[in-house]
Every structure is written in structure tokens, then in C-alpha cells.
Design goal:
- The chain is α+β, with helices and mostly antiparallel strands and 110 residues long.
- The chain contains three helices and five strands, in the order E-E-E-E-E-H-H-H.
- The protein has a five-stranded antiparallel beta sheet with strand order 4-3-2-1-5, with no helix packed on it.
């Protein structure tokens, strides 16, 4: 069984994904960038690739990325360090805690 080998830059057609350009050829794999700007890797021996004379599109569409808004951005290390540097009133920490159960005995009648 002979396998078709394509050169880098060759235009090919794959029945499921359509036309694209070969961007790399490895030992057993062929990578194709299709006209919709997706890249797929095919096992060369199983791929149903046919050469085509269809030219590549003039300008490939660019994927746009969503930008993070200021409110949804994660805090930086400096902001986290500043938030952790909180003044603690040590007098309030050393004060004894109020006894919660003392008033309950008086209310119950005990």
C-alpha cells in the first residue's frame, strides 16, 4: 500500500474539513491548516487527502480573543501582598472573650 506524501505548502482537500494547506510533514503525520484557520493533525496512512488546485484564501480570518475586564482580572501578587498586610489591633486580640452561656442560665431560671 502506498501512502500519499505531500510537500509543505501543498494545497489539499479533506472530505470532512474541506481545503487547506500542508504546514508540516512528519514520519507518520501530516498537519494541515484549513481555510477556516484550524490546524488538524492526520495519520498520513489513514488520511483521505486529495491534491487540489483551489487557491488559498487571500486573507485568512483572524481569531479574536476576549479581553479581560478590570473587574474580572485576578489580583496580582502586589495586590495580594497589600491585602495581606492588614493592621491588627493586638489589644482587642488579647481581651478575654465574653462568656456566652452565663446569661442563659439566668433566663431559664437556673
Amino acid at each position: 500500500m502506498t501512502t500519499k506524501r505531500f510537500e509543505v505548502g501543498a494545497r489539499v482537500h479533506e472530505p470532512t474539513y474541506g481545503s487547506g494547506s500542508v504546514i508540516s510533514v512528519e514520519d507518520a503525520y501530516t498537519r494541515i491548516q484549513f481555510d477556516d484557520n484550524t490546524v488538524r493533525k492526520f495519520l498520513t496512512s489513514l488520511a483521505r487527502l486529495e491534491p487540489t488546485d483551489e487557491p488559498a484564501p487571500a486573507a485568512r480570518p483572524q481569531r479574536s480573543r476576549k479581553r479581560k475586564s478590570a473587574s474580572s482580572a485576578k489580583p496580582t501578587k502586589a495586590k495580594r501582598a497589600a491585602a495581606a498586610d492588614v493592621d491588627i489591633d493586638l489589644d482587642a486580640v488579647d481581651a478575654p472573650a465574653p462568656v456566652v452561656g452565663a446569661d442563659l442560665d439566668a433566663d431559664i431560671g437556673g
